[in-house]
Amino acid sequence: MLFDQFEPFAEEHWHSGFIRCIRHQLYKNSTHLLSCEFNIHSYNDQCFVAHGIDFPDEVRAAVIKRKAEYLAARIVVKQALSALGLEVAQQQVSIAKDRSPVWPKDIIGSISHTQDFAVCCVTRAAEISLIGVDSELILSAPAARSLAAEIHNETELKLMTDAGFSEAVGTSIIFSAKESLYKALYPVVCCYFGFEQARVSQLDLQRSRLTLTLCRSFASQHGLASDYTIQFSIKGTLVHTLLLQS
């Protein structure tokens, strides 16, 4: 289980091939969270055909890692959209010019992938207003130190370290949480905004949740609420975060 508000629905395992397993979880029987583990060493371009996934030109020209991550993410997206009852022709999610996913009409969703893991969260827009999901490799201590100033301020990190997280794990959680917030809000604001526009203002360690508060000027400019709750979890070498707002 990645996030505690979701119930397990189905799990499939394979002993060979590109996809190792797919896990399907449900929230209120209408929001689908699907994740998969995949084997990049088993990837070849024919995998797109085998899984019935469109192979866009911009992905064809990419390195193998990018191709494999894109394919794995679209495989779970296809299954999620099928679970929502969409026709086969509507189960393909293309890439917009700004590199964001192009969801079918009346569908809202979010995608993330890293290393050998991909995840998506998808529902109908009438059910949920904001979705942002993110998965990241936990940063090494040197990487966390070098990136810290771009991700958070000292007060934000202190909230995490006071709760018992190392600086590297704390920075990784904050990074992923702000990525989830960005993914959730980008379709609303339709513009890039940096991590400095949000800060960690609260941490609920018992419920594995934190609150991100937007800068007042940014929230006012775009007519946004100030506070957003992000759930987080750590599984092995990965940190996962989710913003899910009705």
UniProtKB/TrEMBL annotation:
Domain 4'-phosphopantetheinyl transferase intervals: 131-220
Cofactor: Mg(2+)
Pathway: Siderophore biosynthesis; enterobactin biosynthesis
Keywords, alphabetical: Enterobactin biosynthesis, Magnesium, Metal-binding, Transferase
Residues annotated to bind Mg(2+): 134, 136
Domain 4'-phosphopantetheinyl transferase N-terminal: 59-122
Assembly behavior: EntB, EntD, EntE, and EntF form a multienzyme complex called enterobactin synthase.
Function summary: Involved in the biosynthesis of the siderophore enterobactin (enterochelin), which is a macrocyclic trimeric lactone of N-(2,3-dihydroxybenzoyl)-serine. The serine trilactone serves as a scaffolding for the three catechol functionalities that provide hexadentate coordination for the tightly ligated iron(2+) atoms.
Matches recorded under PANTHER family: ENTEROBACTIN SYNTHASE COMPONENT D
Protein family: Belongs to the P-Pant transferase superfamily. EntD family.
Annotated protein name in UniProt: Enterobactin synthase component D
